[in-house]
Structure formats: C-alpha cells, structure tokens
Design brief:
Elements: E1 19-23, H1 29-39, E2 51-58, E3 61-70, H2 76-82, H3 86-92, E4 96-104, H4 113-118, H5 123-133, E5 139-144, H6 152-156, E6 160-164, E7 168-171, E8 174-177, E9 183-188, H7 193-198, H8 217-227, H9 243-255, H10 261-269, H11 273-278, E10 282-284, E11 289-291, H12 295-304, H13 307-318
Parallel strand pairs: 4-5
Antiparallel strand pairs: 1-2, 2-3, 3-4, 5-9, 6-9, 7-8, 10-11
C-alpha cells in the first residue's frame, strides 16, 4: 500500500509539511504495539474488529500513536444523536471508527500536539481507512474516562461531546454493568455524516455484507404500522393471516438472517404467543392459541405484494429513528420465553407454534 503523508502544524514548533500522520508499515507493527503496551495507562493486547494503526512523526521521530478500530456496537448518546433505527444502525456501524487509543510518547511533549493531531482534516483517517479496508468512514468516536481526563484535547480539536454512557461493557457477547460511565465524543468526517448514517438507502460505496439483526417485540410492532397501508394482494375474501402481520414477520425474519420462504416460516414458528398477539396474528379459537403463517402463505404474499410499495413502507419505518423509551440492550429473540404477564390465557394442549396457511 502506498504511504501517505499529511501536514501537521504544532504552533510553529514543527514546521509545516515536516510533520506527518500516517499508517504504520507492516514491519513497524511490533514497535508500535510495544510502545502502546508500555506507555498507555490501559496497556494494549489486541484490536477489536477492523483496525488502523497510525503514527504522528517529525523527521522520522515518533511523537504520538493512534489506534482506530471498529465502533461500539451500541452507545445510547451516539445513537440518539444519529437518530437511526436499529436495523440501519447494524448495517452502518462499519462507517464509524473508534479512537480506542491515543498516546503521546515521551518524545512528543510538544505544546498542543494532541489537539493538533486530532484536528487535522479528515484525510489521515478517512483516506487511510479506505485504502486499508476498502470503504470510507463517516464519523469518528471515542470514549473518555471522566475520572482521569476532562476531554480538553478533543474539545480543542472541535470534537462534539454527546454526554455519558450508561456504564456498560460488552463481555463474551453480553453487556455487563461496570459502573464507570465514559464521556462520548464524536467528530463528523463528512459534512452530511448523520444523514448518511441514518438514511435508508446507502451509498453504493458504503455497503458491505448485511449484518443479521433480531428485532425487539416493540420494533416489530412499530414495523407493522406502515405496512397496514399496503393494499391486500390476495383477493377480496377474508384472509386468516392479516397482510401487515405476514409482511412484518417476513421482514423481521430477513433482518435476522432468514433466506428463503422455508427459513422465514421456521422463524415464524419460533415466535411466542405474546409476540404473535402483539402482531395481531391469527387466533385459532378451536385450539385456543395464536398460529403463525405457513410457508405457502409467505410465498404467496411475497410473490404478489408490490415490491416498490413494500420498500417504501419499510423505508418509512427505518427513518423513524431510535425511540428514547426503548432500552438499547433489549434484544429478545423469537425462541426466548415470553413474559407470563403478556401471554394470553390458553388451554391449548397442542404446540401453538404450528403454522397454518391462509
């Protein structure tokens, strides 16, 4: 990869064009890791996800080290600021880079060096990330421990403070409360960063493999609302399974990774009675339970519904943003046991997840 150099002006201490911020070369990685491990108060073990190691240097002398890596999966202040829906959020997280480490080396004690490195034009991060990972980043984020730092270097570099996290950390796939909230700072790398992150239609250059997302019960219920406006494509007779219910389940299944009609019907069969009730599914009075749509039902509906109208309804839901009253860590899966207070009283002895056409 061709190495790039960028101007670094440290208030006259370092002459213009003689300071650079650049990605490290492959043979410099061991040195970079050792310095970060030795001098940063958090130490250094390994990176999380995609990463970019950078160095700020002057005439070959290393002054500062930066580590950019995959963004935080969920962060309430950031997510409210962007105002994106959760499905879009998980498709666009790769467009955010997290400044996980920023270290001024003992040899880099230069006035205002930290803020000047951070306030450089976005080229050092955006262009280098594009060269290494094949796609741009629209937003930089970082978390500052208020017990140790006040974030002055980020404030001086025109980063924006969004508030405090709730003091959770991801550990082995779960969120654990550690009771040490961090201050969230962000820096847009594009003039329309927020718009690009939350808009339903992504720029072709920003796309990547779709990530699976399991919707919460509340998200599925809200998804159903715009789908109610779609015309019924199955003829005039009354259908067992309402169109909004069938389409909501199909879209939720697709977001969760289901591919094909059979996989969608299997997802539907795993929905709980409480979930089917909330989606206003078909209630079989003889069996006294809710019944999920069958594979032929999904096939018939998805083949007959207007794709453009379906996309428009989905986009309308996706643009509603992140509701403030919904806990970010609420990610109930279809197979999860429902809350007994929500489940309808039932005497059905047969498996109520059995699907039925209609």
């Amino acid at each position: 990869m061709e190495e790039r150099s960028y101007s670094l002006d440290a208030g006259g201490t370092i002459p213009l064009l003689e300071g650079v911020v650049r990605p490290i070369a492959s043979d410099e990685r061991d040195r970079w890791d050792a310095l970060m491990r030795r001098h940063h108060y958090l130490g250094f073990n390994r990176t999380a996800g995609r990463a970019l190691r950078q160095v700020a240097e002057y005439r070959g002398q290393w002054l500062a080290l930066l580590l950019w890596q995959a963004s935080a999966r969920m962060c309430a202040p950031r997510d409210r600021w962007i105002n994106w829906s959760r499905p879009i959020q998980f498709q666009r997280l790769h467009l955010i880079a997290n400044n996980a480490r920023f270290l001024i080396l003992p040899s880099g004690r230069i006035p205002n060096l930290a803020s000047r490195v951070l306030s450089l034009k976005p080229l050092p991060l955006a262009a280098d990330w594009q060269a290494v990972h094949g796609h741009p980043v629209l937003l930089a984020e970082t978390f500052v421990d208020p017990a140790r730092f006040h974030g002055g270097r980020y404030r001086a570099a025109n980063w924006q403070c969004l508030g405090l996290t709730r003091g959770f950390a991801r550990d082995a796939g779960r969120y654990v409360h550690h009771g040490e909230p961090k201050t969230v700072w962000v820096y847009p790398l594009h003039r329309r960063a927020r718009h690009g992150l939350r808009h339903p239609v992504a720029h072709p250059a920003w796309s990547q493999t779709m990530q699976n997302v399991t919707l919460t019960d509340l998200e599925m219920a809200r998804l159903r609302e715009p789908l109610r406006q779609l015309p019924e494509p199955r003829g005039g007779r009354r259908q067992l399974h309402p169109l909004p219910t069938v389409l909501t389940i199909a879209l939720a299944a697709t977001l969760a990774g289901a591919r094909g009609y059979l996989a969608i019907s299997e997802y539907a069969a795993r929905l709980s009675q409480a979930q089917l009730k909330r989606l206003r599914g078909y209630f079989d009075r003889k069996r006294d339970c809710f019944v999920a749509p069958s594979e032929p039902t999904f096939r018939r509906v998805l083949q007959q519904v207007d794709p453009a109208e379906l996309e428009q309804a989905f986009s309308a839901w996706a643009q509603t943003g992140l509701p403030d009253d919904e806990p970010l860590r609420s990610m109930a899966r279809p197979s999860r046991a429902p809350d007994a207070r929500m489940a309808p009283k039932s005497t059905c002895s047969a498996p109520c997840s059995t699907t039925r056409g209609g």
